[in-house]
Amino acid sequence: MSVVRMVRMGRTGTKERITPTRGTFVGRIAATPAWGDGQIGAGMDELLSRIEDKIEGVASFYRRVPGAILTEDDLKCFLFSRLLEVDELRTPRPTLSPGVLGTMVHTEVSWLDEDGRLSKKPDITILHPKDLSIFQDPRESNIFDRGQPRIALSKGFRFSGKAIIFEVKFIRGKRGVIQPHLKAVRKDLQKVTGLFDQLARIGAEDELFCYFVIFSRVDRLAAGFAELKREIEQHPRCRVIFGTAGVTWPAKRQGVRIARDRRGATAGSPPSPA
Predict the structure, then answer these.
(1) Residue 134: pLDDT band with limits 50, 70, 90
(2) Which of 51, 75, 90, 136 has a beta carbon 3.0–4.6 Å from 84's, enabling a disulfide?
């Protein structure tokens, strides 16, 4: 099977690879990326294409080096570092706080739920610094900021513009993606759906985009994966990306023989014949 299976919504035709333009570095402010309007928009579509190229790069590397990603946090770190390779995402830009620069890629950003609690925490959030304040607590301001609906809030800071979030899952068992993993993804889907519902009530549902990034050491998918994928696909601003190392798990008897041979070698006796 292919290294990466991609569920794309809102596009037609064959994907074109876009070569990122060379950006500027710290000390200079790059041009503001065009986030686009409506469902996706031309500017947003280009940015998403570059983001997906980076996720594909992580998946390709994982296929070549299965021991590189051992935990879900490893996967998040790889994704975070690759996202910072996108010029538009790594360049510091002015925030709403005078004299303060900010960047676009962050982890574990808490969002307020319907009850005003900081209970929703996507694994990775991309936000624009121009809509970020690091000095104002979200509870200290009204629901509208500068005439725009504030769509995301967190402890000790707030931001009000468009955002791209990532829900990340890493499966390392020899059975691949099984029912408990689907249940965990469905729980994430409910969380994301709740965010979209909150935004819809203030007319800002187009301000958010979500990726579900699912990597598995073994290339096996439970029967319910296709159904869950269809459920996620119903929302035009969600995409699923699946990557796998495609490893073959050793047979149990072979593993026992290897362990026995190692013990014999340690004791000074020759290993058992193959």
Answers:
(1) confident
(2) 90
